[in-house]
Amino acid sequence: QVQLKESGGGLVQAGGSLRLSCAGSGRTLTNYAMGWFRQAPGKEREFVASISWSGDTTYYADSVKGRFTISKDNLLNTVSLQMNTLKPDDAAIYYCASAGSAFYTGRLLSTQSAYAYWGQGTQVTVSS
What are the pLDDT tens digits along the chain (128 aa)? Predict the structure, then answer.
């Protein structure tokens, strides 16, 4: 059974940084693209960032470009999201997800439909 577990969320002041991690079990993440999504209260879940199975292609939502960095460690079977210069609008529950198809690298990675497995989320709160 594939499981994804996020960690690293918490409370941070605006302008601060957090690093989220997502550990996978039941599946070797090496061959699968990974993504991060977030959902704020009263809003739909939205795409944040994705990384290809090989780690050499990344996509970011415009709202986080230049501030967030997604990375993948195939040895540790983890994916991380480094979040810098956080803003109150970044506050949300952050979810990691693993693509349904191995070796997929297309732009559908910015959509939820590309992902088959999801973590339960980690809360990020940003105080102004």
Answer: 889 999 999 999 999 999 999 999 888 888 999 999 999 999 999 999 999 999 999 999 999 999 999 999 988 999 999 999 999 999 999 999 999 888 888 778 999 999 999 999 999 999 99
Residue whose tokens read 């973590």? 119
Tokens 């339960």 sit at which residue?
120
Residue 60, token pair as written in the block: 């970011």
Amino acid of residue 53? W
Amino acid at 97: A
Q: Judge contact between 67 and 19, C-beta under 8 A.
A: no
Helix (H, G, I), strand (E, B) or coil at 21: strand
The amino acid that residue 48 corresponds to is V
Q: Which of 60, 124, 118 is nearest to 87 (CA)?
A: 124
Using alpha carbons only, give the angle 49, 7, 89 rounded to the nearest 5 degrees: 50
Residue 34 C-alpha from the chain's centroid: 7
